[in-house]
Amino acid sequence: MALVWQKRAAGNLYQVRNHGASVRLFSNGVFHSQWNPRDPLKGSLWELLLLPAFFLPAGQIRSVLLLGVGGGALIRLLQTFVAPARIVGVDLDPVHLDVARRFFGVRDAELVCADAREFVASALAEGQPGSYDLVIDDLFGHAGGEVERSVAADRTWCRSLSGLLDDDGLLVSNFGSRRELLASAWRDSAVGAEFPHRWTAELPAYENCVLATSRRPLSRRQLVAEAPARINPGHASRRLDSRLRRLK
């Protein structure tokens, strides 16, 4: 891989590297994001976060809140395959947002440098309930060379996110493992009563477990009918070897 750019800031080493047509972001040696405009669907974790969007009918997702931008790969995927009218991306790290603009080509998205908890609290206080059709919680940091969630999915956090979601909307949350998801407040009986329709998605090469949940029924048949072939669990040419399961 060729080193394109690097920067030291706040005790962190950021690097952008090219691998063929792919651009990749590393922070302290941790691989954060990858985008290939020529071949965007390669079977990566970012596509696993994209996949649940196809539980909803085409055109229903008009407004997206992404908490945790990284290099912006998921924004590019959403713009390419879902085309919402509005994407708001929130990240605490200004370098990530700079990289998203300069090297990942993120345009036509509202990038906000802020603590996600403060952003969500402020949005709720300003009277913005039900503002988004899709909310994605991908808040991860790194410690000792390992990636870990930076905001605990406790009852307060889950209820805060649900307050920003449209009644017919979809919430997607990334966890470091299935065990971490099962220990979260999304399994709480009160939270589960509000969001009874839940699926999980996993990949063989990753420990991560992605939750997709909604107040409305989510149909695997709908997802298979809508998702692009390269990430479609029902298509023979898929590159994304995802395992979809209902979470009870």
Sum this structure up briefly.
The protein has helices at 45-50, 73-81, 94-102, 116-125, 155-163, 178-182, 189-194, 220-226; strands spanning 2-9, 12-19, 22-27, 30-35, 63-67, 86-91, 110-113, 132-137, 140-143, 146-149, 165-175, 197-202, 209-214, 243-246. It is of the alpha/beta class and 248 residues long.
Strand residues, percent: 25-35%
Percent helix among the residues?
Answer: 10-25%
Along the chain, the helix and strand elements come as EEEEHEHEHEHEEEHEHHEEHE
Total E-strand runs: 14
CATH superfamily: Vaccinia Virus protein VP39
Helix tally? 8
Distance between the termini: 43 Å
Q: Using the alpha-carbon principal axes, give the shape.
A: globular
Can you offer a commentary on this structure?
With 248 residues, this protein is of the alpha/beta class. The mean pLDDT is 95. The chain has an eight-stranded mixed sheet with strand order 7-6-5-8-11-13-12-14. The chain has a four-stranded antiparallel sheet with strand order 1-2-3-4, with no helix packed on it. It has a single domain, classed as Rossmann fold (3-Layer(aba) Sandwich), CATH 3.40.50.150. α4 packs across α5.
Supply database-style keywords.
single chain; 248 residues; alpha/beta; Rossmann fold; eight-stranded mixed sheet; four-stranded antiparallel sheet; globular
